[in-house]
Amino acid sequence: MWLVLSLMAWGAVAVLGLLYLPQLWRYGQTLKQYFLQRSEQDLAARFVFIQGHALAPLFWVSLVVGAGLFGWATGSWWWMLMGAMLSVMVWPLALRWWKKRRLQHYEKQLPDYLLALAGALRAGSSLAVAMQRMTPLCHAPLVQELSLVLREQRMGVARDEAFARLYARMPCEGNSLLRSALAVAGQSGGGLADLLESMAHTINQRLYIEGRIRALTAQGRIQAWVMVALPFLVGAALYVLDSALIAPLWQEASGRWVLLTIIVLEALGLWFIYRIVNIRL
Fold this sequence. Notes:
- The protein is mainly alpha-helical.
- It has helices spanning 2-45, 52-74, 77-122, 127-134, 142-154, 159-169, 173-188, 192-216, 218-241, 243-246, 248-251, 253-277.
- It is built from twelve helices and no strands.
- Helix 3 (77-122) packs across helix 4 (127-134), helix 3 (77-122) runs antiparallel to helix 8 (192-216) and helix 9 (218-241) packs antiparallel against helix 12.
């Protein structure tokens, strides 16, 4: 009787799998296309031009590596699926971190560029000529973004629109001030050189205060990563000392649930600590 019921259950599972397999395949293809398109757009925004089909192997390699590592460590199909999902999530997080770092470098370069621009205006150059002369002397990412602004103006885009697009690509306070200052100067005139110099000093003071805040909150960020790493380091030490003592964590279902709970709580703790120490001006 139990054999018949088992065969019927497995048959029902097989029929459902065959019915929903095309839908799952289409969903997987849609997810892959979304991943490749977003990655291509994000990389193009950072002046790294890679076609989506060239990123497809990276997509599959990340899936296989993540699923393989979790499957080898736990021997469970559920953990293999979770490893594949986590490996897909790592790539958008890396792109987000890269965008944040690029924006920080841009903000650090902007005050010196504004001071150089103010000096060129005092020497008698117009704003367009001063930007054409000063921009090639800068470093990435500032030279990439401002060169694009100059090319857009040569193609007929209005100056205000070009700087509005710059702010959309690099949403920092310096670009907002620069866009507003150029718009006001274009409408009412006035000493643009003095205004740019004042903006440069303001941005420098803001960056200095943010650096002081990061230095004062560095201990909190280190504590967050120590809190995350400590359970795994203790687990690794226990595994070296007595592997049979800690093996039930990934060999039994209850142990795997405990590991999952630990990972979720660690992620929540890390998020809360970074929300506390991440002070924005």
